[in-house]
From TrEMBL:
Region described as Disordered: spans on this chain: 925-963
Superkingdom of origin: Bacteria
CDD domains in the cross-refs: UDM1_RNF168_RNF169-like
Family annotation (InterPro entries): AsmA-related
Spans traversing the lipid bilayer: 12-33
Record keywords: Membrane, Transmembrane, Transmembrane helix
The species this protein was found in: Chryseobacterium paridis
Name of the featured protein: Membrane assembly protein AsmA
């Protein structure tokens, strides 16, 4: 026994020594190797990361991620790849890499086999052009031989762990948004191998998924157990075992994903079979989940999903989507419901080739439920296409809406009334071809009542009798009758009667009367941003045919009545702010809709309109209707800057193009977008118009808007103390670009004031800094605006005349240098009164025609080329007395700031013009100084050109003879 005790004590002794030694090594190794590890990790980061990397500090430890020796980096920030190098791709509280201890001790090499990232925010972005921000890892080309002498770290991963990540994936080219919060991920596998199996354990607390700004998942939890075979050579992912759970709904995935040079290749199948309706409801938006907890829900459901094909933005390829949802024998009942919803069945199939809604096939084979005896609903709907849609529909039901409300146990809404519908339709619906399915049906609602929790008073006495009929599948036989549609809201009744026939040439008879409190109506439906206490008061009688207005048969129209708007807020998809219609009094008189009183504001701008619109009926009927009109416009102040599409504002309903442009260009203002459906002329009077800090006072002239372009004709305004007259045209091309033409005349403006107050003068005419006096201008220009609505100078084309009526030029460097070289001080203050300077602008160059002025007894003549960036290539002839008949040549090159003079020379140094791409609105090449060529080279080039021209002439004569 004593011997056994000694053995035990000896074992414990050596075990303790071993543990102490291991602990000692774990403590001492980070102290022995910090320089080696930190240096090699930095070498690796600098060599293999294209994005800028910043961090607070690095340290070694065995205890952070026991038992691995880890290099930890605290407060790491990694910037994105070009062109997103200023944006953060990844910000993490800690990034740690596990080090292979054997290689470190015996080979003094740093081999990274584990990565841990904790408390991170990742922002993965693809812009509209398909450029990505995550190409930050620069790998070594495989064809190069391995450099065995090179020091640095290498990666051979077996484990990746992410803890508490927030990831946003925003792909503007595919219009996809994924926003995941609280992501935890563990990946195991031989990451360094060419082909390996990746075991994944994924958990996300909340995830959103949107396509084309439509959310298909909102704040859903996600659990995933995945095994994916990855081929790093071909960048292919094969989904072997993939079990997901979205909230309570299980999904199984199979298939593959290949990453290509210009996109992806997908073949993915998903299924959620033999689940319950309650599981399916768990993926609905969050506001419905509380309802589901308190509601008895039974029944089975199945979901099938597939996505196959190639996605390539450059080649305009997208995969095919197929989905099917089955609901069987459903039962829904709230505890207070006298009758449950029973026999709920649905079979919905969706086929979307190339993710193109124009090719969408929708097949609702069955949607049905019962709410007791004589209270049921049935629907079968099949459609194919969108703009030209094949439709086969059979919808029938008689439903007590209060019973439906109680059966579902709806909390936020209280609805009542008897709804009865029976509609059958079969045929093609096409607005372009004016086709409508053969249809016979009706929708009746009696004693309707609607109240929400957002507003105390209900919309009540809702009655609707709507009948629709079509006998031959064309617009001509289509008839729609509303007799009546009426409701009461807060003691104000609203009545609408409508009888519409022959939609090829609509015969209409409409009456509308009532008062509607728009602000409170929006509050009923909890619409934020529309909380304006606005009123609409209508008393209208519209009677006529669509063609009466378009063919000028106005006497056959009987449109009359009034429409009054007060304090109404309105938005459009292309303006950042809302219009506030303070008062709008509209009167209908046959073909015209008169604006008798119209006062509106937009930001700081105000407008008063008086005039009429034509074609209002046709505009609302036709798919591509154009509004015609003529108005007088008066304003105290218009600030053009606040109309620029990317400016900040309260409008949340911007177009997706504007929204994406704003995200991709956060510091840009964009350009002003013009509506494409207006043909309106305006006689405009504005006391003050401001554009980019430039004040235009007492503007008066004719303006028109037509097909997305604005025209100004005979328009004048006061600017820098002078009256300017202009004719102009403006057209936007996108939220970021626009083009314009302008012809302007201005008499007697102060050059120095123009130089100080107008940016364009300082940028285009830098020499104006040394000019004082009065100048007149007659000029024509065309060009493009950039994303901040500033002129793109290389895009400018045009020309005109500048008249120097009464000016003095002092200390202009180019003239001063000439004076210094010819010994004439008078060049510092030449006499240029009455001189006309004619110039032509193209490709960022200004070509100056010959003009002559006086310098004491001398008569200099100048011509040549200069650029907006200051390059000079000018020819000067200094005429000597008497009369300047005899003179000598001077060449001026260099720049405005540093001119170079050659006397008795005619050989300058040309300027190669800039190149500008009008399609992409980009400068391809800046102008530059031409290469110097000897006289021999110039002579050879001239001879070659003459020979080429001679051969071309011979070929033409030969061709003529053969004919």
């Amino acid at each position: 026994m004593e011997k056994f005790t000694k053995i035990i004590l000896k074992v414990l002794k050596w075990l303790g020594i071993s543990i102490a030694f291991i602990l000692f090594l774990m403590f001492i190794i980070p102290i022995l190797f910090p320089g080696t590890i930190s240096q090699q990790v930095k070498i690796f980061a600098n060599k293999h990361l294209a994005g800028k990397l910043d961090c607070k500090k690095t340290h070694l430890s065995f205890f952070k991620h026991f038992p691995s020796l880890t290099v930890s980096v605290d407060q790491l920030i990694l910037k994105g790849s070009k062109p997103f190098q200023e944006d953060t791709l990844l910000a993490a509280k800690e990034v740690a890499v596990g080090i292979n201890l054997k290689n470190l001790i015996f080979d003094r090499e740093v081999k990274i086999d584990e990565i841990y990232v904790t408390d991170a925010n990742a922002n993965v972005f693809v812009n509209s052009k398909g450029e990505v921000n995550y190409n930050v890892y620069v790998s070594k080309p495989s064809e190069k031989p391995k450099d065995t002498t090179e020091e640095g770290a290498s990666i051979k991963l077996d484990l990746i762990k992410f803890r508490n990540w927030n990831i946003k994936y925003n792909d503007h080219s595919a219009r996809i948004l994924v926003d995941a919060k609280g992501l935890n991920y563990t990946g195991k596998g031989g990451f360094s191998k060419d082909i390996f199996d990746l075991q994944t354990d994924l958990e996300i607390n909340k995830v959103d998924f949107a396509l084309n700004r439509i959310y298909y998942a909102k704040q859903k939890s996600l659990r995933a157990d995945l095994i994916t075979r990855i081929n790093t050579n071909a960048l292919t992912f094969v989904l072997r075992k993939n079990e997901l759970k979205i909230n309570d709904l299980p999904l199984k995935f199979t298939g593959s994903l290949s990453i290509l040079k210009d996109g992806y290749n997908l073949d993915i199948n998903a299924a959620s079979e033999k689940t319950t309706i309650r599981d399916m409801i768990s993926v609905l938006p969050p506001q419905y989940l509380d309802w589901a907890k308190d509601t008895k829900i039974e029944g089975n459901s199945d979901l099938f999903f597939s996505l196959k094909g190639r996605f390539s933005e450059p080649k305009k390829l997208k995969p095919r989507l197929n989905a099917r949802l089955l609901v069987k024998d459903g039962f829904v009942s709230n505890g207070k419901a006298p009758v449950p919803m029973n026999n709920l069945n649905m079979d919905l199939n969706v086929d979307l080739p190339s993710l193109d809604t124009e090719q969408m096939n929708l097949n609702l084979r069955n949607l049905s439920f019962d709410l007791g005896k004589n209270n049921n609903f049935r629907a079968v709907v099949r459609t194919k296409g969108l703009n030209e849609m094949q439709v086969n529909a059979d919808v029938k039901g008689a439903v007590d809406l209060q019973t439906l409300d109680q059966a579902l146990g709806l909390k936020d809404i209280d609805v009542r009334g008897l709804m009865d519908t029976n509609i059958k339709a079969n045929g093609i619906f096409s607005l372009d071809k004016k086709l409508f399915p053969k249809t016979d049906g009706y929708l009746h609602l009696k004693n309707g009542w609607l109240k929400t929790k957002y507003y105390p008073n209900p919309i009540q006495n809702i009655n609707l009798i709507a009948n629709i009929n079509n006998t031959d599948g064309t617009f001509k036989s289509l008839g729609v009758k509303l007799d009546p549609f009426s409701f009461d809201f807060e003691g104000n009744p609203v009545y609408v009667n409508a009888d519409l026939k022959d939609f090829e040439d609509l015969l209409y008879k409409v009456k509308a009367k009532g008062v509607l409190n728009v602000g409170r109506i929006y509050k009923v439906f909890a619409k934020k941003g529309f909380d304006v206490s606005g009123l609409i008061m209508a008393d209208l009688s519209l009677n006529g045919r669509q063609s009466y207005a378009t063919t000028g048969q106005y006497s056959k129209l009987d449109n009359k009545g009034t429409l009054i708007l007060k304090n109404i807020k309105a938005t459009t998809s292309y303006l950042p702010k809302s219009f506030y219609i303070k008062e709008g009094n509209f009167q209908f008189e046959n073909e015209k809709m008169w604006f008798r009183k119209f006062f509106a504001t937009y930001g700081k701008s105000d407008f008063a309109l008086n005039g009429y619109l034509l074609n209002t009926i046709n505009y609302f009927i036709e798919r591509k209707g154009i509004l015609h009109g003529k108005f007088g416009l008066n304003s105290n102040y218009i600030l053009i800057d606040e109309f620029m599409a990317l400016k900040d504002g309260d409008n949340a309903d911007k177009s997706i193009e504007v929204e994406y442009a704003k995200v991709e260009n956060p510091k840009s203002s964009g350009v002003v977008i013009i509506p494409k459906n207006l043909d309106v002329s305006l006689e405009a009077h504005a006391k003050k118009v401001e554009f980019k800090g430039l004040d235009l006072n007492h503007l008066k002239g004719l303006a028109s808007v037509n097909a997305g372009q604005v025209y100004l004709k005979n328009t004048s305004f006061d600017i820098i103390g002078s009256r300017m007259n202009i004719d102009a045209r403006y057209q936007d091309e996108s939220p970021l670009t626009a083009n314009y033409d302008i012809a302007l005349k201005v008499q007697d403006f102060d050059v120095q004031r123009a130089y100080k107050e107008i940016d364009m003068v300082r940028e285009m005419v830098t020499a104006a800094k040394n000019v004082k006096g009065i100048v007149s201008l007659d000029y024509k220009l065309k060009g493009d605006f950039d994303k901040n609505m500033r002129p793109i100078y290389p895009s400018l084309e045009g020309g005109g005349i500048v008249n120097l009526r009464d000016v003095e030029v002092k200390n202009l460097k180019m003239l001063s240098v000439i004076g210094d070289n010819v010994g004439a001080n008078a060049f510092n203050n030449p006499d240029m009164k009455g001189v006309n300077i004619e110039t032509v602008i193209k490709n960022n160059l200004i070509h100056v025609d010959k003009f002559t002025f006086k310098v004491s007894v001398l008569r200099p003549t100048i011509s040549g080329t200069t650029s907006f960036n200051g390059l000079l290539d000018l020819r000067v002839r200094v005429g000597l007395p008497p009369g300047g008949w005899i003179g000598f040549p001077v060449v001026v090159t260099g720049t405005h700031d540093k001119p170079k003079i050659k006397i008795f020379s005619k050989t300058g140094q040309g300027i190669v013009d800039a190149l500008y791409n009008t399609k992409s609105n980009k400068v391809i090449r800046q102008e530059r100084r031409a290469e110097k060529k000897s006289r021999v080279q110039q002579r050879k080039e001239k001879e070659a050109q003459e020979k080429k021209a001679e051969n071309a002439e011979k070929q033409i004569k030969k061709d003529l003879k053969e004919k």
